[in-house]
């Protein structure tokens, strides 16, 4: 144990319930962008490809992550997408100029193929409709095509396309990042609010069981944030169930202490959007609570420069291929911890994205599928972070970074799974040089023993994985003890930790 160095304490108690974790916070995202679809999940010539051309090795890794929901088909892509191009006989589908990413969209994969793939990997789909170049009509037709059983024009067309049973897609995004100047068909808040409301209203008439996500700001740094939320929700509050949040972080200045504190910004973003939703709720005298769908989040900056050199109008170019290092994995862990601590309002979150494009899973053409560093905190949270999120009562030393003050070295979340009767403590030591001595009071969990302490740590914050070698991968930490209602452990400097307790140790 450390001498008189860095020390923190944490109390875990069954009574301090924040909320039941909605498993959909472990969602992800596949956009028709770069090598996510073409050359990612879909590579017909690959040795592991199934009859539809989907790679089996990629499916296996997605299944390992146990992703409950996947957003599709965009992203910026959706704002110029004609969904009708992606259904029916593949050989008759048009090739289109794809304007969001300036590629060619061959439409070999469309709604029905993707739904088949999602079923195979055990995920629900969060479908986005185009409110950039299109509107009410295209959205209600797509919903009728997907969810209506039959006996109407669009539902019978689906049946003619070989899909007898409706897809029953529950969650629908009303457009994507409509506040962004880069968005095809960008709108003012008032324009978007009206269109989203009318689209949502028509969609609910087609299928009253759906859930709708109103488009929030593209990031907390947008000049129109949070006015965008206030104005759009005035229109969409009654028709929508969630408002979306998007946020990506980077470490361009190479200031790792500041970078690891970025989840403080995330925390502030969530609090501000929650407050704005509650302001509209009060204004409308509404009884309904608006929930948050963090449907795009990740680290994204490594690939920015190389992306400017990409040749336009090709199919599946290597766009947004961030090669993640160890410190990126730590921030991903910290962002997941933040979602868990806001389990009462954040009900969905999609790590953007899933394969090749700013992704935990990478593929080589004709070769291997492999795990980036960020795969691991995502895997651990998805596997062990289901149940009740408990409020950690923390006493931790703090530091000041470039953009944040009072940053606790210990970042943590606690999940109690009633089914398995297991308690999991997720903990990050943000200190870059010193180990942190942690004492957890778990007296409320009598008879629990240590199952394992998983640690993700590397001496080099910039270490990366490759197709050939997993330099950054989890290992079992030693020295952690659970005795007389207390867990005592030493968290390595710059580390992600998963401490699991249960009765059946
Ligand atoms: O995830 C990559 C892009 O980031 C998405 O297409 C867009 O919605 C966001 O700006």
UniProtKB/TrEMBL annotation:
Domain Alpha-L-arabinofuranosidase C-terminal residues, every copy: 295-495
InterPro entries (UniProt xref): Alpha-L-AF_C (IPR010720), ASD1_cat (IPR055235), GH (IPR017853), Glyco_hydro_b (IPR013780)
SMART domains cross-referenced by the UniProt entry: Alpha-L-AF_C
The protein's annotated pathway: Glycan metabolism
Molecular-function annotations in GO: alpha-L-arabinofuranosidase activity
Pfam families: Alpha-L-AF_C, ASD1_dom
Substrates-to-products reaction catalysed: Hydrolysis of terminal non-reducing alpha-L-arabinofuranoside residues in alpha-L-arabinosides
Keywords: Carbohydrate metabolism, Glycosidase, Hydrolase
Enzyme class, first EC level, given as a word: hydrolase
Entry EC no(s): 3.2.1.55
Family listed: Belongs to the glycosyl hydrolase 51 family.
Subunit structure: Homohexamer; trimer of dimers.
Protein name: non-reducing end alpha-L-arabinofuranosidase
Organism: Paenibacillus auburnensis
Lineage: Bacteria, Bacillati, Bacillota, Bacilli, Bacillales
């Amino acid at each position: 144990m450390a001498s008189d160095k860095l020390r923190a304490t944490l109390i875990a108690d069954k009574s301090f319930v924040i909320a039941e974790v909605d498993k959909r916070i472990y969602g992800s995202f596949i956009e028709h962008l770069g090598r996510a679809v073409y050359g990612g999940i879909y590579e017909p010539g690959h040795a592991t490809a199934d009859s539809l051309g989907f790679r089996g090795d990629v499916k296996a890794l997605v299944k390992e992550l146990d992703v409950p929901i996947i957003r599709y088909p965009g992203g910026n892509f959706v704002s110029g997408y004609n969904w009708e191009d992606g259904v029916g006989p593949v050989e008759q589908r048009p090739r289109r100029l794809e304007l969001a990413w300036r590629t060619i969209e061959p439409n070999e994969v469309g709604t029905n193929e993707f739904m088949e793939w999602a079923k195979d990997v055990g995920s629900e789909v969060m479908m986005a409709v185009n409110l950039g170049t299109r509107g009410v009509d295209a959205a209600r037709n797509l919903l009728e095509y997907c969810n209506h059983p039959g006996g109407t024009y669009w539902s019978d067309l689906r049946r003619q396309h070989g899909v007898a049973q409706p897809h029953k897609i529950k969650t629908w995004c009303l457009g994507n990042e409509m506040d962004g100047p880069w968005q095809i068909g960008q709108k003012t808040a008032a324009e978007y609010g009206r269109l989203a409301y009318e689209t949502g209203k028509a969609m609910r008439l087609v299928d009253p069981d759906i859930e709708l996500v109103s488009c929030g700001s593209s990031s907390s740094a947008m000049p129109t944030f949070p006015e965008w939320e206030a104005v759009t929700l005035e229109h969409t509050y009654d028709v929508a169930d969630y408002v979306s949040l998007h946020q990506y972080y980077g470490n361009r200045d190479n200031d790792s202490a500041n970078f690891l504190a970025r989840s403080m910004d995330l925390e502030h973003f969530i609090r501000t959007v929650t407050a704005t939703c509650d302001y509209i709720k009060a204004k409308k005298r509404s009884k309904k609570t608006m929930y948050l769908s963090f449907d795009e989040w990740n680290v994204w900056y490594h690939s920015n420069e190389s992306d400017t050199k990409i040749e336009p109008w090709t199919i599946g170019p290597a766009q947004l291929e961030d090669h993640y290092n160890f410190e990126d994995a730590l921030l991903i862990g910290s962002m997941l911890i933040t979602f868990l601590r806001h389990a009462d309002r954040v009900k969905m979150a999609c790590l953007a994205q899933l394969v090749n494009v700013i992704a935990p899973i990478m593929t080589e053409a004709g070769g291997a599928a492999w795990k980036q560093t960020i795969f691991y905190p995502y895997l651990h949270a998805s596997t062990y972070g289901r149940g009740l999120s408990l409020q950690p009562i923390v006493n931790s030393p703090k530091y000041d970074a470039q953009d944040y003050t009072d940053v606790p070295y210990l970042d943590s979340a606690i999940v109690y799974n009633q089914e398995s009767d297991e308690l999991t403590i997720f903990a990050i030591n943000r200190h870059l040089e010193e180990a942190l001595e942690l004492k957890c009071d778990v007296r409320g969990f009598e008879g629990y023993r240590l199952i394992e302490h998983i640690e993700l740590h590397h001496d080099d914050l910039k270490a990366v994985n490759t197709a050939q070698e997993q330099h950054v991968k989890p290992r079992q930490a030693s020295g952690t003890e659970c005795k007389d209602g207390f867990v005592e452990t030493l968290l390595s400097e710059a580390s992600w930790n998963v401490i699991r307790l249960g009765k059946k140790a």
